[in-house]
Amino acid sequence: MKYRNLGHTGMYVSELCLGAMMFGAWGEPDHEAATQIIHRALDAGVNFIDTADVYSQGESEVIVGKALKGRRDEVILATKFHGPMDVAMGTPGGDPNKRGNSRRWIIQEVEQSLRRLQTDWIDLYQVHRPDADTDDDETLAALTDLQRQGKIRAFGSSTFPAARMVEDQWISERRGLGRFVTEQPPYSLLDRGVEREVLPIAEKYHLGILSWSPLAGGWLSGRIRRDQGVPQTRRAQMMPARFDLSLPANQAKLDAVEDFVHLAEDSGITLVHLALAFVLQHPAVTSPIIGPRTMDQLESQLGAVDAELSTEVLDRIDEIVAPGTTVADDGNAYVTEALTNSRMRRSRAR
Q: For 12, which DSSP code?
């Protein structure tokens, strides 16, 4: 395993980050099995773990905390806040003050994450998504206070559009606050939209990049093929529209996947290694986040750090999916509330 500077923080992290989203009710409910996956990753040299409070409503953090007993000092530990913690994701209702990016919620929720993770500090505390109802000045000031108190070492953003990334850097400079030192965007062979602005902005401001969904939610795992269909995974059950092959958008993804399968075969590597190596070779990327649910999935991904793609292979990738473009953007990662909340577009209701 090789290690890279996380932005300019001086914290060195492994080229693969272990994502813990699938540990708990959302994926692997057996705590012991999840712990074994974490220990295997650590033994392989992975020293970077990313989770979030909202993953299985705190259960993922609990599992990570138990797994790191006696090994906490080996790990750069990252978690996130923003999502609702009193109701399930996507469920209406709940307490509006138990979510979001307000100072009130940040100060309260960091204590809960520290308790679940069984640690005295968080190395990287991240804003999971932007919040249209909270000024970023408020969020950055609260995070700066936590950093000065020693409860967090650094803080970052996740799935922020490029314009907001720049604005936040200026807010920090203008107000003398700590600044976001990382960004966590979606990035894969099928989703290259962040190459237009997000990744160049990250390089300009020396931000570390933790790219999520480098396997495009399972599309680049090698299990979804034209002659095999879509396996009935929990992810497919939770988000059926993303895997419905009757939809033209998913047919376009399937066409690209078939081309990438053949390219991987011609290159003598697996599709998984092709996908992860592609993300790893972008100069702005620090660590792609892998999210295994099983030990076999972890083992299939660890070897990607040894794969290096030639110029010819990278050129062929550009022919299949052009730089800066996205094949069937069904994740809606950057759809803002200005588009989803009609009240923000209408001065009065009639």
A: E
Ordered by where they begin, the domains of the chain are: 3-345 (3.20.20.100)
Q: b/e for 63-79, b at 16 or more Cβ within 10 A?
A: bbbbbbeeeeeebbbbb
Q: How far apart (Å, rounded) are the C-alpha atoms in residues 133 and 136?
A: 9
C-alpha distances in angstroms, 302 versus 40, 252, 269, 287, 297?
10, 28, 13, 12, 9
Residue-level pLDDT, tens digit, the chain, 350 residues: 999 999 999 999 999 999 999 999 999 999 999 999 999 999 999 999 999 999 999 999 999 999 999 999 999 999 999 999 999 887 888 999 999 999 999 999 999 999 999 999 999 999 999 999 999 999 999 999 999 999 999 999 999 999 999 999 999 999 999 999 999 999 999 999 999 999 999 999 999 999 999 999 999 998 888 877 677 666 666 677 777 877 888 889 999 999 999 999 999 999 999 999 999 999 999 999 999 999 999 999 999 999 999 999 999 999 999 999 999 765 567 777 778 788 788 876 55
Choosing from 55, 125, 187, 334, the catalytic residue is 55
- The token pair at 284 is 């702005």
Interatomic CA distance for residues 243 and 260, integer angstroms: 18
The verdict on whether 205 is a catalytic residue reads: no
Tell me the one-letter amino acid at 176.
Answer: G
Q: What is the DSSP string of 13-59?
A: EESSEEE-TTBSTTSB--HHHHHHHHHHHHHTT--EEE--TTGGGGH
